[in-house]
Every structure is written in C-alpha cells, then in structure tokens.
Amino acid sequence: MLKKWSAAVLSGLLVVGALSACGGEGDDAGSGKKDDGKITMGFAQVGAESGWRTANTKSVQEAATAAGIDLKFSDAQQKQENQIKAIRSYIAQKVDIIAFSPVVESGWDTVLKEAKDAKIPVILTDRAVDSKDTSLYKTFIGSDFVLEGKKAGEWLVKEYTGKTDTVNIVELQGTTGSAPANDRKSGFADVIKADPKFKVIASQTGDFTRAKGKEVMEAFLKANPKIDVLYAHNDDMGLGAIEAIVAAGKKPGVDIKIITVDAVKDGMTALSEGKINYIVECSPLLGPQLMDLAKKVLAGETIPQRVLTEETTFTPEQAKAALPNRKY
Ligand code: AHR
Description:
Blueprint lengths: L6 H9 L3 H4 L17 E6 L5 H17 L2 E6 L4 H13 L4 E4 L8 H9 L4 E4 L13 E4 L2 H15 L7 E7 L5 H14 L5 E8 L4 H14 L5 E4 L2 H13 L9 E6 L2 H8 L5 E4 L5 H12 L7 E3 L4 E2 L1 H7 L6
Parallel strand pairs: 1-2, 1-3, 3-4, 4-5, 5-11, 6-7, 6-8, 8-9, 9-10
Antiparallel strand pairs: 10-12
This protein binds alpha-L-arabinofuranose (AHR).
C-alpha cells in the first residue's frame, strides 16, 4: 500500500526510483495498513466464463507480479452486484488503484463516484461503461468490439459474393447488456444490412459460455430447418454450438458456416480443422499494459482516455500457421 502522497511528489519519487524506500514499515496514515511502498491494485474480474477470460486473468495476475504490484483479485461470477461489492470492499481497504472489467455497460455511476470521492483512481479494462461522466475513470484499455463485429460481417459478405439465395443466419450473443454483446451485434448488423439476402433468423444470448452456446444452438436447430451461418460472439459459445450441430447430424463449417470472436487455442484448433470458418481476434493479454498505465496514473502522468488493443483475423490456413506459437 502506498502512502497517499500528492501526484507531483509521487511522480518525483518514482523518477528517482525511491518509491520502495519512501514508506518504511509503519501503518499507512492510521488506516491500519502496512505501508510497504508497494502499489496495491484491486481488480474486479467478470468471472471465468470462457477461455478468453481465463487467459485474461492469467495475464493480469502475471503482469502484477512482474510489475511488483500487490494484486487483490475477485471473481464476480458474471454478476454485476458481486462486482459492485468487490469494488466497495477495495474502496474500504483503501487500495491505491482499482481496475475492473464491467460485466454490463450500465449502472456504474454510483460506485464509480464512491471511488472518486475516496480519491481512488479507476481503470476500465476490456469492457466499457456507458457513464456520461468520463471523469469517473482514468482510461479504458481494450478492444474495439464494434470493429470486431464489422470484421465478422465483412467476411460473410465476401464469402457470399455473387450468390443470390437467402442466407439464414443465427446469432449467439454474449452476456446480455455487456459491451461486447452490444457492440459485436451492432457492428455485424451494420455491415450485413447492405444486402437483403442476409437474414438473422434467430438471435439469443449464450452468456459467453460453452454450455449455454450448446443449449441455445440445440433450440435454434430444432426451430429452424435451414440454418446457413452461425455467428457466435465468442469461441466458447461457437464450440458448444459445434457439439449441438454434430449431434443434429450436420457438419460444422460445411453444412453450417461458423464465425466466432476471440481466437483462443480451442477456437483456433477448431478453425484449423475446418469446423469454424473464420475467427476475429480479441486479445486477452491486457495485463502488462494495465500495470504500466496504473503506475503512470499513480505517478500523476497524463495518459490517454482510450487505449486500443491491436487485433487481427484468422482463416483456417492462418490458424494452422499461428497455433504452434499461440500463447492462450
Ligand atoms: O469481454 C470480452 C469477452 O468476454 C470475450 O470475447 C469473451 O470470450 C469473454 O467472456
């Protein structure tokens, strides 16, 4: 836990590398906390719903250790109320900085204001909030989910160029109300609306999990005799859906073309085997950048309000080439 120095003083101390020597072993300003000169970060994670999330958690934990940051970690099990509780507990513990990946976009103003009043800076990672008051957080680091949806739509448009028959699409959405579900849906819809042959005949949440992806796909298959394309907002739901497609006697990637988002190892393996046709990458490796930004914020440095993650896309051939070196 750091003593609450002014930003200017702290910045100077960081520059001369004197941070670890500045606090001594005493209590931090009567808080009962040991002042060991280390930054303490409270991180409120969404959950463990997907391979992506597991890789993201690992990245944050490893990066905190590497940066010498004391990390307090909580798993909200995909529930906003759990995340709010965790953030309040970090405020009560007087951590130096809070980072979190909001389960859903709305409903954060009150708790973010509590953090601001307690003078604890907040960094959003991976997912955005829809708060109008952007002073409630220092920066947002993560992907452009609208662009990811657009890339998925662009592949589809290209794949069906020159064809006139109706293309029936089913969509497995991420967690209802989450930024990636909202944005991947709208980005995709924006691109395919230009051609009326593309019809989204069913769209439902699969909560970003494999089990729910399978369950919802089973229902889609029962209700719709002709499905040409599945667009799943993440690999895990796509992988669950593949099980349902196989069980229905159809060939994934052939009878039903499949587009997913993430590019985790399991998804990339299915892509390399032709069971998925295209994956839009979403990188979970946000840990090192997050720790770097946290240090800068606490040193009083100016940082950008938005830090975008660089990402690519994969065809089956590209997946085969990338798999041996894939980290997650
Ligand atoms: O917010 C990122 C999304 O959350 C990932 O695409 C998904 O797999 C995860 O659960």
